Amino acid sequence: MAELTLPIVDATTEVYEDPLEVIEEIERLKKEQDAVILAHFYVDGDIQEIADYTGDSLKLARDATQATNSTIVFAGVHFMAESAKILSPEKRVLLPDLLAGCSLADSCPPQKLAAYQAELRAQGHDFVTVAYINTSAAVKSLCDWIVTSGNARELIEQKVPKDKEILFVPDQHLGRYLMEVTGREMILWPGSCMVHEVFSIQDLVRAKKRNPKAVVLAHPECPQNVVELADVVGGTEKMRRYVSSLSEPTTFLVATEANMIHPLKAIAPQHEYIPVPGIMADTGETCACNRCPHMARNTLAKVRDCLKFGRPEIVWQPYFEQAQDVLRRSLLS
Ligand code: SF4
After folding, report:
1. Which residue among 78, 133, 172, 193 has the greatest number of ligand 1 atoms within 8 angstroms of its CB, and so is best to mutate?
2. Source organism's superkingdom (predicted)?
3. 0.70 exceeded by the pTM?
4. Superfamily designation of domain 199-275
5. Burial classification of residue 20, based on how many CB atoms lie within 10 Å of its CB (0-12 exposed, 13-18 middle, 19 or more buried)
6. The CATH number of the domain covering residues in 8-100+294-309
7. Pocket of ligand 1 contains residue 104 by CB under 6 Å
């Protein structure tokens, strides 16, 4: 069990609660409601500890379809819970905080994407649209393929005909990285993740100097100058596989959301993990911007409350049907 250091505050009553009592309540409600908890690697470690499934977006999307329970609690962000609902429409999908969004998904509104696609077609471009899973369902419904950092390279190499251009949305950094590893030219949407965007190259260089033998792990959502300094570039599952493949204790500098250190420690506790800090604030202090504020909206109390009250719930929307086709084709076949 992870060490629980933070007090829990019920937002409605502002009463401090004992985390262990909240966990007991969650366990009881889970049974009563026939529920299963899915937690992304970027939520707090104490939620990952009580989850039935943990993982990255790809693994959790697949886990959601495998779970036999009638209710899914998705401790993550909105687009993830939406994808779970789209892939398992018969299940009730609860998101502990409806405001848990994603700056990357927000950077690509569906109306803007539709207008840009029309503009490219009018200019004579013959393209397919490949979207990172960090997009709204409305955007997914406008796309040909959905990828995650775990399957993007393989999917593009195997499924996208060589004679087609690729419009890649919404992450410009992941897109640039994919251009390099696949050798395909892409039209890039200018979006980025607020967490990975702020990794400071100066901090990384300084950390490397202090730990000259350290191995740098970077998520492909990081800007190019950070990726260029990394020894291993990959999504969260690739990072886990890599650290567990080394038995010799090693120091890692980790350039992704800081909570990722929790599953790395769990799978390979013999290593030391140092989070790469974000850009220094004017005061000279390092900010905590390598924590995703959207993922941080998930708390044990909110997991308990969504089970207790049956909301917030992701409700089926008409455009989910088209998004369902592309998600199933991309992630489940
Ligand atoms: S870490 Fe970035 S991409 Fe992931 S949910 Fe947060 S804002 Fe979105």
Report:
1. 193
2. Bacteria
3. yes
4. NadA-like (3.40.50.10800)
5. exposed
6. 3.40.50.10800
7. yes
